[in-house]
């Protein structure tokens, strides 16, 4: 279900995706927001070319100041009238309709900030949801049971007998919410990598699909993934990339040795103490190109790019 509220944690993601050419609708799908709300948000705060996180923050702060001013004016007779009508189960919209000098948003904010006990008179009360004991454990078990494990892979993958069998993982920097996603071809060592500005499985899949669509169909056969939650959208990834997906066993990183070794090469440029928010897509692409064109001893000093595309 898409949510309309676009919070501070979304602003930098929106900014990054706009810079690399995403539309408002694509961004909304990627981060689980309502498409029309996303387009209104982008338009309100500068549009596709002028969207600036600092300006969003400034305007939001100014809006809060104005809203708090309106709360301070809700006193005396007006406040008593609002409370009386709320206790008669009038909605804030109905009160604003009766009293044109009071906005519904002011009443909602007053209840939220000053009088949470009045929520009991609202029709929609966002109470606590108590999950049934064991539900989450059973759901996780069902998801794990659906996964193909690495020991189900054909022997040709094990012996690196063809191009098109990939291993996938993510790399973490100082800010754990921002990752570098890596996919490596087992036979040639050819690397695909991109920035994941927010740790959402749907966004990871959307960006991965875009990358793999540039790869010829005959060179994308299987992907073996890590067990991180960022790959929980694997069924959609499998369908849209037309690959077969397998999973290594938890905490068995050596089962994706090609990927682990390649991530080690990337760490020369992006150590764990680096904030990945400071990396641009262009900088990452330059490093990936450099690694793909670097000769490898195991290939008689031929480069992964040459072997993959020859």
CATH architecture term of the largest domain: 2-Layer Sandwich
Quaternary status: single chain
Integer count of domains = 2
For the terminal residues, how far apart are their CA atoms? 44 Å
Integer-rounded radius of gyration: 26 Å
Overall form: elongated
Q: Give the topology string: H per helix, E per strand.
A: HHHHHHHHHHEEEHEHEHHH
CATH superfamily of the largest domain: Ribonuclease H-like superfamily/Ribonuclease H
Q: What is the strand arrangement across the widest sheet?
A: 3-2-1-4-5
Strand content: 5-15%
Low-confidence runs of at least 5 consecutive residues: 127-133
Helix and strand content put the structural class at alpha/beta
> What is the helical fraction, as a range of percent?
40-55%
* Record field, number of beta strands: 5
Largest sheet: 5 strands, mixed
The overall pLDDT, averaged over residues, is: 86
Short overview:
The chain is an alpha/beta fold and 310 residues long.
């Amino acid at each position: 279900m898409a949510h309309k509220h676009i919070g501070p944690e979304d602003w930098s993601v929106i900014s990054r995706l706009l810079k690399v050419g995403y539309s408002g609708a694509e961004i909304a799908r990627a981060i689980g927001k309502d498409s029309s709300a996303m387009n209104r948000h982008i338009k309100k705060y500068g549009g596709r070319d002028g969207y600036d996180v600092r300006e969003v923050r400034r305007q939001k702060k100014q809006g809060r100041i104005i809203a708090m001013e309106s709360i301070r004016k809700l006193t005396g007779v007006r406040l008593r009238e609002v409370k009386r009508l709320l206790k008669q189960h009038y909605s804030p919209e109905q009160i604003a309709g009766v009293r044109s000098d009071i906005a519904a948003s002011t009443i909602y904010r007053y209840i939220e900030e000053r009088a949470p006990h009045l929520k009991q008179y609202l029709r929609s009360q966002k109470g606590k949801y108590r999950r049934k004991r064991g539900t989450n454990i059973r759901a996780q078990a069902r998801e794990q049971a659906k996964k193909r494990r690495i020991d189900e892979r054909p022997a040709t993958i094990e012996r690196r007998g063809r191009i098109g069998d990939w291993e996938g993982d993510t790399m973490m920097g100082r800010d754990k919410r921002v990752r570098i996603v890596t996919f490596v071809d087992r036979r040639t060592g050819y690397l695909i990598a991109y920035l994941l500005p927010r740790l959402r499985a749907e966004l990871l899949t959307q960006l991965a699909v875009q990358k793999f669509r540039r790869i010829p169909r005959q060179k994308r056969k299987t992907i073996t993934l890590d067990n991180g939650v960022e790959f929980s959208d694997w069924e959609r990834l499998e369908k849209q990339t037309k690959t077969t997906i397998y999973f290594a066993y938890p905490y068995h990183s050596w089962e994706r040795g090609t990927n682990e070794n390649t991530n080690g090469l990337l760490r020369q440029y992006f150590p764990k103490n680096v904030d990945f928010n400071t990396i641009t897509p262009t900088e990452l692409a330059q490093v990936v190109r450099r690694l793909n064109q670097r000769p490898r001893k195991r290939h008689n000093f031929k480069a992964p790019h040459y072997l993959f595309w020859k």
